[in-house]
Amino acid sequence: MANGATAGAVQQNVPRRLIAFIVRWTTATNHKDIGTLYLCTALLNLFVGGTLALCIRAELFVPGLQFVEPNFFNTLTTMHGLIMLFGFIMPVAVGFANWLIPMMIGAPDMALPRLNNMSFWLLPTATVMLVSTLFMDGGAPNFGWTMYAPLSTTYGPPSTDYMIFAVHMLGISSIMGSINIITTIATMRAPGMTWMKLPVFVWTWLVTAFLLIGIMPVLAGAVTMMLFDRNFGTAFFDAAGGGDPLLFQHIFWFFGHPEVYVLALPAFGIISQVIPTFSRKPLFGYRTMVMATILIGFLSYIVWAHHMFTSGMPYGAQLYFMLATMLIAVPTGMKVFNWITTMFRGSISFETPMLFAIAFVFMFTFAGCTGVMLAVAPADFQYHDSYFVVAHFHYVLVNGLTFAFIAGAYYWYPKFWGRMYNERLGKWHFWLSTISVNVLFFPQHFLGLAGMPRRIPDYALQFVDFNFISSIGAFVFGFSQLIFVYNMMVSRHKGKPASDRVWEGAEGLEWTLSSPPPHHSFQTPPRID
Amino acid sequence: MSEPTPTDKYYIPAASHWPILCCVALFTFFAGIGRWLHELPSGPWVWLCGVALLIVVLFGWFGTVISENLSGVYNEQVGRSFRSGMKLLILSEVVFFAGFFGGYFFIRLWGIPMLGGEVHPITSVLLWPDFSAEWPLLTNPDNGRFLGATNLGSPWGVPLANTLLLLTSSFTLTFAHRAMAQGHSATLKIGLFITILLGAAFLGLQAHEYMDDYERNNLTLNAGIYGSVFYLLTGFHGFHVLVGVIMISTMLGRALKGHFSRPGDHFALEGVAWYWHFVDVVWLLLFLFVYWL
């Protein structure tokens, strides 16, 4: 009788516990809970977007059409781009911001915790709407993530309207998130935490948040005009009514180029925390680091048309955008040299986060060099819309930024969960990823220089070898990421308990808290001297 | 530093169900518009559900914040956070309008002259040789698909009246704000009421002007780029005025309940005032660049 009652209670408890679980996570206002939600969603979207990428690489394994229709191939490239940018790499950065900024500045939480919850939950809401387009009549958007008019207006499938609304919601989410981050940094710093004592990660996020506020409304405006052109007979992007398709490109890239730095700056911030720790030296040139961040943020606003060199701009404009773009190499170079100088004569140890950080410095610098090549207007006429561009921005986003975020994940994992990850698995993950990601993307430079265009499901026979190699790299890289997931999930319970400081050379307020830190990091502000 | 007092501690709100409900409301709202645009019969109903839920959320969420404020759990830091948040929200709105204005100037100073053959004459010859570049653009390159407006209203009629209405409303709102700071609650209520009337009058005149443009001037959304830009800029501005009027009405309702009876600075009214002045400045730019020049 007693046994039966207990069993009944347990059975009743399962739905109740499920409801409690759902309520806990949907109504969360704690910055760590929301940070965790962001990071988990980002990881999930990484695999969704990654699966689409593997479909693309499977189709391109050999020439000819094997698995997908050409139109579906176009939806694959479009959705891969949108999901990876808006669903993976932006949320992963916001996840780190949520977890770390309050701890780094000595605050108990974000300044506007309820708004924080809304910023997060709009993200899965919008992602659901975006992914649902795959199952609609006429298929998902098929015009590339850049949504160029008239492909998206006159020729876009009906589901484009839902993509527009998804972008609107993602925009609201990013703007609210940025408002929250700036406000937190402005009003919640512990006494004595002056601007020039902020950790570089906080600085990079401050500039990033301002960039987001300066571009997301513009993107919202662009897709709104697109919506009107599609449904209400306006002529913004239609020359027959006096509009201009180039207007869309200008507005889109005014958003699109700073967006690159929205993604890159938080990654720079993470690297600027990781490298000093494992070099056991303070960051070289803190002031120049801050200045370079602000300079990159400013310059990123005024270089957008280097994405449009082949659109028939006047030569004067081409010259200006070429030179302005090259200027960005200066503050970025300052950062790279500062990281290298930080390592110089340090007592370096090569734990997994440091390995990923060093790989980041190498591969991101390489990506920056191909970026300077692309910035040269006359040369860009050759590279434009080829696999060279694909290789360039995947070196930035995968070999560069994704590596930085993985470095951050390993670096703060023991702090977040109180247990060490498995170092041996981490090293396996590092070496497999680093080798395979170069096998994946390095040959694509040659493909592009030889003239293979992007966004096509089939190709000429001279491109067979490099595509074959690239696809092998893609599958190895994709499946190596499962090691990471396994490591993160298993170490949560089986890892060795971590100390508060975790790393011998770690500096900063977050390491003064216990591992894992208390629910509300600093109930009363710490004094910084 | 002295001993920490309770107000030195941070204020941390408990878990809340309003944000997630707000996300559900927005999803329903947008899904409803999507279905409506694709002429599915459920569209308007889904949209209405979204709107209704959104209204519930706004009442619930703001109600929570107001009652927390009245119960005195907020401190100086919360006030600063709210103010910073509002300023940044307005900044994002500035950028939103700046994007539209940028598009407008691009079309007017670059797109139209290009179509007229000013930079590469061959473009014009090959596409629409009869097209002549002018602004405002009344004859579109393809005037069959996009029938241009027949004529345009004068800026010195309704638009000028609207300018005066909004400018006056900014003064009356400042007046009300001052009255609140000094504790004159009757003046506060009168000031808010007049501001609402002026805002509503603006909206009425704007609607009247739109109807006039549609019926007599053939200035429609389909009238080519001039109609597109005109309705985009003035329409979004009008929507912001509508939101502002609703916000000020809320403030009036709160004032009637005696919420602002304690003299001093009240964030809600201050934030609404900033927002109203921002809407006012946008209108001045609209009047200058869209109607006048």
Architecture blueprint of SSEs:
The complex is a heterodimer of chains A (529) and B (293).
Chain A: H1 2-26, H2 31-59, H3 70-105, H4 113-132, H5 160-187, H6 200-231, H7 245-279, H8 286-300, H9 315-327, H10 329-343, H11 352-375, H12 377-383, H13 387-417, H14 423-449, H15 464-494
Helix pairs in contact in A: 2-3, 2-4, 2-15, 3-4, 3-5, 3-7, 3-13, 4-5, 5-6, 6-7, 6-8, 7-8, 7-10, 7-11, 7-13, 8-10, 10-11, 11-13, 11-14, 13-14, 14-15
Chain B: H1 18-37, H2 43-70, H3 76-115, H4 121-127, H5 158-182, H6 185-215, H7 224-256, H8 267-292
Throw out a few tags for this protein.
heterodimer; A: 529 residues; mainly alpha; Cytochrome C Oxidase, Chain A; 70% helix; globular; B: mainly alpha; Four Helix Bundle (Hemerythrin (Met), subunit A); 8 helices
Structural overview:
The complex is a heterodimer of chains A (529) and B (293). Helix content of chain A is 70%, strand content 0%. By secondary structure, chain A is mainly alpha-helical. Chain A has one domain: Cytochrome C Oxidase, Chain A (Up-down Bundle). Mean pLDDT of chain B is 89; it is low at 1-7. Chain B is an all-alpha fold and 293 residues long. Chain B starts with 17 loop residues before the first helix and ends with a helix.
Q: Indicate the CATH architecture of chain A.
A: Up-down Bundle
Individual helix count of chain A: 15
Could you name the CATH topology of chain A? Cytochrome C Oxidase, Chain A
The greatest inter-chain interface is formed by:
A-B, 76 and 71 residues
Question: SSE string of chain B, helix = H, strand = E?
Answer: HHHHHHHH
Strand content of chain A: under 5%
For the record, give the distance between the C-alpha atoms at the N and C termini of chain B, rounded to a whole number. Answer: 58 Å
Radius of gyration of chain B: 24 Å
Low-confidence stretches of chain A: none
* Beta-strand content estimate of chain B: under 5%
Give the helix proportion of chain B (percent range): over 70%
Mean pLDDT of chain A: 92
Within CATH, the superfamily of chain A carries the name: Cytochrome c oxidase-like, subunit I domain
In the CATH scheme, what's the topology name of the largest domain in chain B?
Four Helix Bundle (Hemerythrin (Met), subunit A)
Q: What would the principal axes of the Cα set say about the shape of chain A? A: globular
Q: State the name of the first-level CATH class of chain A.
A: Mainly Alpha
Q: Give the CATH level 1 class of the largest domain in chain B.
A: Mainly Alpha
What number of domains of chain B? 2
End-to-end Cα distance of chain A: 65 Å
